Amino acid sequence: MWLDIDMRLRQRTNGTRGLDDFARALFAAKPGDLTIYRFEDVCSPLTQLAAYDWPGVLAHHLDAHDDTHLIDGLARGGALAHLPTRHARDLGRSTGGLWTVPIGG
Question: Which residue segment(s) compose the domain that 34 sits in?
Answer without folding.
Answer: 2-63
